[in-house]
Batch of 2 targets.
Target 1
Amino acid sequence: MDVLLSVLDPDYFAATIRLATPLLFATLGGILNERAGIINIGLEGTMLMAALTGVFGAWFIGSPWLGFACGVLAGALVAWIHGFVSISLGANQIVSGTAINLLGLGLSSFLIRIVFGLKEQQRVVPHFDPVSLPLLADLPLLGPVLFHQHALVYVAFLLVPVLWVILYRTRWGLMITAVGEHPRAASSVGIDPLRVRYACTVLSGALAGAGGAFLSLGQLHFFQDEMVAGRGFIALAALIFGRWNPIGGMIACLIFGAADALQFRGQAVGLGVPHQFMLMFPYVLTLAILVVVGGKSQGPAAIGIPFRKS
Amino acid sequence: MSGAAAARGLQALRATSISLAAIALALAASAVLILLAGADPVAAYWALLQGAVGDGFALGNTLARTTPLIFTGLAVAFAFRCNLLNIGAEGQLYAGALASVVIGIYLTGLPSVLHIALSIAGGFLAGAAWGGLAGYLRAARGINEIISTIMLNFVAIFFVSYLVHGPLAEPPGFFHQTAMVAETARLPVIYPKSDLSVAIFLAVAVALLTAYVLWRTPFGLKLRAVGESTGTARFSGVPVNRYVFGAMSVSGGLAGLAGTTEMIGGQYRLLDFFSPGYGFDGIAVAFLGRSDPIGVVFAAFLFAALRVGANHMQRTTGLPTSLILVIQGMVILFILGVAVLEWYRRRQRG
Amino acid sequence: MPLLRMERITKTFPGVVANDRIDLAVDRGEIHALLGENGSGKTTLMNALYGLHRPDSGRILLDGAEVRFSSPMDAIAAGIGMVHQHFMLVPPLTVVENIVLGLKTANAPRSPLLDLRTAAARVRELAATYGLDIDTGAQIWQLPVGAQQRVEILKALYRDADLLILDEPTAVLAPSEVRHLIGVLRGLAASGKAVIFISHKLNEVMEVADRISVLRGGRLAGTVAAAETDPAELARLMVGRDIVPPRRREGRAGDPVLRIEALRVRDDRGLRAVDVVGFSLSSGEILGIAGVDGNGQKELTEAIAGVRAIESGALDLTGLAPSRGERFRNIGHVTEDRHHTGLLMSFPLWENLALKSSDRPPFGSPLWLRVDAMRRATARAIETFSIRAQGPDSPVSALSGGNQQKLVLARELGLRPRLLLAAQPTRGLDVGATEYIHQRLLAARDEGMAILLVSTELDEVLALSDRVLVMYEGRAMGLVDAGEATRETVGMMMAGMERHEAAVQGGT
């Protein structure tokens, strides 16, 4: 009963939304990327680089917002490398993503030591604090859950309908879908599949970068080796779970966020379930859903296949 | 015979020179980073080399570190020959380690040879089961193995974490680790000061066996046929789904052996998160080795040398060991780049 | 003044002159056929017109003004529309979404938002004008190929095309659909548009075109008015000599090898693709299966080969399939698509040759391959089948289409199967390779092999078969002996008439 009450606690829901946010940024990015036919398992490394750059930016410029912008840019830049290798050079996207992960892991850990020095690696930098939306935050129950969050949380959740409209209601979305499903057909009506893929990849990197910078500037307030802790991979799970749809992706991120929050909660209240099982839960759930849905949900037809003009 | 061997030899030579060029480029690019960090690249690389192969102890450590990378590299390469991307070597490695440790600790009173053999077999089978699960999901349910193996990695790693925190924790349970495996289950140590055991010979032997299976058996031919074209394989009577399942199982088994040799070849007990990402490095190793078992052996040695040498480099020059990851990532990117240059050349020749 | 004039177009690829000083003029209101064998340069010429590549020399004039296209966009903007042989449609998008793909929104060119309602209204208007019946809201993957082709035509018209190029548009259509398409094209011509109709089928071209330009070996062999020519002249222009049907002896049929009764098979989408009452095939006999592409021939062959489950009925292989492995060795199969179901393109010749029998002598055992034996056998096959290749070690991808097909034939005949399934065995091959394959098939028959020949080329079926079975919408329309099979009767059966009806109408 205690457990049930503690789970129904507004704090728990607030934590769920907060923990879902970085995941949501990355998931939206992944959706955009994969719908254009590029799979990016390098999201993890991209987020790490952005988390680091965000910390550097916030420290040296002195503003979390500008730091965040640096992180977003860094994400876009790293994704551009993935784009160059897998779009222009037409190389294997999984291998390229693996290289990005190695680079991100290595470079972020290398640079934090070089720039901040061994002793001060975990220097706390200017960061984001929760913002209460006037009036709304005073609503009972809903107020603290929904309207006392970091500004970027609102941004992430606003991006969901924005991306949905872009994908399903604009000619850009049509182009992206065409390039992801049948790039040659897109090319035959004058769309340049390579440019569309580049645009989606770089934007996707920017979004993953936003997720990474949110982790360091919104949650941890400093940089730590491997601090993304698999969220880049979880985002890949979430977008499949959400069937490449921003709304589905958001639902997936909330479920994963809830599991994550439950883990802290579970430890705190002695839920009786080992916390490792809670950590496992999102993955098992995704697998289970894949098994139920089966191969019917394979995603864009041309995913992972380089496009070459002939 | 000589014709086929010569053709393959020429291919291998070209692949090797590309890999070497990429390594050189990556080292050159990283030298810039070292300069930025205010250190001397020549001194740093010299320290790296010394630390990796400078004396018997260093070489022993490097070879010890090569062993799991050969296995995970073989695992990824084997699956890739069947056009399957096994991102799950990490999880399969944990599965293998778990089985071997359980056999090593609780199955006592056996002659050493038998105990070791059982432990190895158990590790292979456990890895094979974990990899085979992804293969089954792909063959029977059409679920992309890249996705499923990513998920299964986390499940295996957290499950092992749970076990060493609870059921399998060494009494009285202060530390999150299992007990040590019995003496009878331990592989003979070659070089006592380092962790080097005969596991390295096992790894090289398995690499040779894998090469033989791939190139010189009907099973290997059909498996590669499935990798090249499922349509052609199917129309030639190859049961494609069974081969997909089989390839993922063997791949998982190979990764499982990485866990096994870590357990009975030097660490002797299972810890939380004990693998520093051998499974993920396997992807890079397989790629650097061009998915060729012999190439994998050399690539694994290179990666191991970098990792082991990095510690010495950090001690003498103060450069963080993570520089090595940067070098490794760049090697792969450069190979991708060079391979494409080659492709352009071929295309221009028509 | 003609709408389109192409003057002395030349295009070379490494080692090949694909177009050699070709002239072509097309008037408004004209249906102009471009006739030629595969590899004669039709596609290259049209790609130059559509901006997919630039000719080395020569000029393209539209309404008398010279144009230079560097991409299909330029061609589209100049009023040229192309219906590709493989449709350029995105399966999960709807008809109207496919049509507006890549275009700015009509009323608000600056807005990224779509206005599908207005677009759909205009599509319906165009569809009504030209008799192109379509459901604008349907997703492409739900539509039959005929409807998809109409979408492609609408897509071009929506972009205000004055000149429409159709690349082998009838290859995928049933005869009734062909007739409908011809009606649509006539209507387009009557409204002042020009149509270029690419084909390699003589009769069809005679029926649809006003004028016919024939290409041969990259050159223009001649342009003739349809009213002033006949198929024989066209054939001469196309191949450079009179077509001599392969001289064939009557076969001597032996014991039955394959018997089929009330066989039903489903296609990949789960729809019933085959519903055949029954037939049998004996050794020493070629049974030809005629029919338009997509009428169940593929599913029927695949069911016999053992790669497609049967829904119901009896498939009696008279002991050819005691086990799975035996079945694939006892039944030779020259598959329809050698790139995807016949060969391993990046593998050396010898691995391809040994693929089906690598685990038994002489090529190996379950545990090892005998590479020497495999390479020697490949070297022999290269000689016997006069395959042009550097040697057993070169990759299959380095071979020309004809030589690849010879390799497939060498593998399948090398197994000495009692039954050979030959699906479109000469598709995409030049005349020389086609003749060679035909001779090999006839020789194999004379040695007592039972051959099931599936071809959409009616002439090929008639030339080689001892008996002809016509398939239409998965059903067998009738079985005709070689002596009684004429183009007319078989053609009408391909269009869905039962044998006796066809016989009456065809006058035989």
Note: The longest strand of chain A covers residues 131-132.
Target 2
Amino acid sequence: MGRPKRIAVCVAQVPFFRGGAEAHVEGLRDALVRAGHRAEIVAVPFKWYPKAQVVRSALAWRFLNLDRVNDEPIDMAICTKFPSYVLKHPNKVTWIIHQFRQVYDWFNTPLSEFTNSPEDLEIRSQIVELDRRALLESRRIYSNSKNTANRLEKYTGLKAIPLYPPLQREGFRSGPYGEYVLSVGRLDKAKRVDLLLQTLPATPTQMNCVVVGEGPERRKLEELAAQLGVSHRVKFLGYVVDSELIELYANCFAVFFAPLDEDYGYITVEAFRAGKPVVTAVDSGGVLEFVTDGESGLVTEPVAEEMAKALARLFQDRKLCQELGLEGNKRAPQNTWQDVVETLVG
Amino acid sequence: MGARLATNILICATQVPFVHGGAEVLVGGLKEALQSRGFRTDVVSLPYNWQPKSEIFRSLMAWRLLDIRESNGIPVDRVICTKFPSYAVRHPHKVVWLVHQHRQAYDWYGTGYSDFLNTPADRRVRKLIKSSDRRTLLEAERIFAISGNVSARLKKYNQLTSEVLYPPPANPHLGESGIGDFVLFVGRLDRAKRVELLLEAAKLAGGGIQYVIAGAGPERRMLEDKAVRLGIDDRVRFAGFLPDEEIAGLYAGCRAVVYTPVDEDYGYAAVEAFFSAKPVITSSDSGGVLEFVRDGETGIVAESNPAALAGAIARLASNSNLASQLGCAGLASVRHITWENVIERLTA
């Protein structure tokens, strides 16, 4: 390793909320410190409504100066989530974990507030322009998956090198292939846990499902389970502590993870570490970088009938579950935080 | 519609990357105190840069561009702003607990601590800071200041009135346990703390007295060299940056705390010493520290020269009864400084 550096790790903040991005930058900061550098997180609140505030939130980064502080240089800025990479710094490395998808792949879909109206188009072009310019200033651009890199190239013409983030939890183990399928993640629309519930009427009645996580959709999902008459087969656990989650992974027969075009998807890798197959959908994005149908899991159309068949097949063939899960574990990225630091800082 | 009870609170802070001092301690303590009382609390902290001076306005602009009235659907009922320029943020329910302004443009102006010169360009920047301070502070529903000293400056330079609200120490391990032998300094090792005065006094106060200097900062190397030059390095231990528990242990085990900064805003070290029932030796130009240390009652106030300080140190070193007595009076004088009181007033 070269001389220790002073490094600012930049991230967008949504006050009161802590999610994957926060854990991610804290992991990065800790890894930098372990490698002998000095690292500090710089977080600026991001608000995306009303739409014009997106641009203002991004501009706030432009007004910061992290070149030198208190008469000492900051050697490097590692920027992550939009709009943190709008920061100007002579040695900026961007590790994209999110662009503002509402103006890119989600544009003009129900997942986006942005439509074809003249006002929206104007704000959209401002964001795209800012993105392009800010990203171009980076010494190097990494992304958290091939999927994110492809999207970046498609919409901005810029190339990024995929750099998978290490897991935030450790200690996964493999136990018996039990009676339940596990779903882990934030309960929002894009995670499509409703698909999982809709499979239950068409799967063996001994098959249960455990849903871990919180989110705006929880109430609706519980109601859906009741409407389908399958409440007795679904457990909503909300948040659970890591040790409990590891047990849940260890004892399920498969993991359901079929979000809509996920950037990366830690859940896939966690499932594989526990030796479990992943049931996902053809449009789940980054998940498909590790899950291949019939090899490390099952991949179907994002419709309940197909998903139900896949789950039933696994439920009835635990040997297959094991084969797929073990193969998945071989394919899951193995890079550590130490590798990440070496790549980013060099 | 009745006023909504303030339950969701954002604390606005100023970040100077890689520098941690009293302001960070205050913000951490405030956050914890709010959370433990059931407030949903988070900290918003923007990096602040003041060199070159044009950066000051850019830092101000960044705060102005934020919209923190709501966060992902959660209303922000109140913001509590602390250090310049965090109080430039816009919010309909802004409360300021002023830690300090940009002192280079105010009370430090014309001293060696300020990088402002009497040039047209610098005069213009000072004027803009002053008018921005006045305007953004006037947007606040209430203004508190962390000390009478900070409050008086705000009155003198900006003609704004504020209420004094002392922050309690954030270190939960502070406590008393008899009186020890060594003399203690706790704080950041920068110029304004004048630790070199203590070293020179240590030389004059003579042998037999041990010193512990706890803290890190840009002056550390210089101070260590100086201790060697003065031939007192065998009696002075530079302990560096220590965790709270060890700091509390040092306070609990010392004879007296020496704390002689230049016109300090507040002076955590003095309050922490008193919570540990230890007397404080300070100097007559130490600012906020003098709101707590009363000469002959809770400590000794000396002139800011080595000889005067040495006299004070020798007096307490040779008289442990006096040290105990002053320390106990110090403890009694700070008992009213509680988070209970602070939270009640900031959220009223």
Note: Chain A has a mean pLDDT of 95.
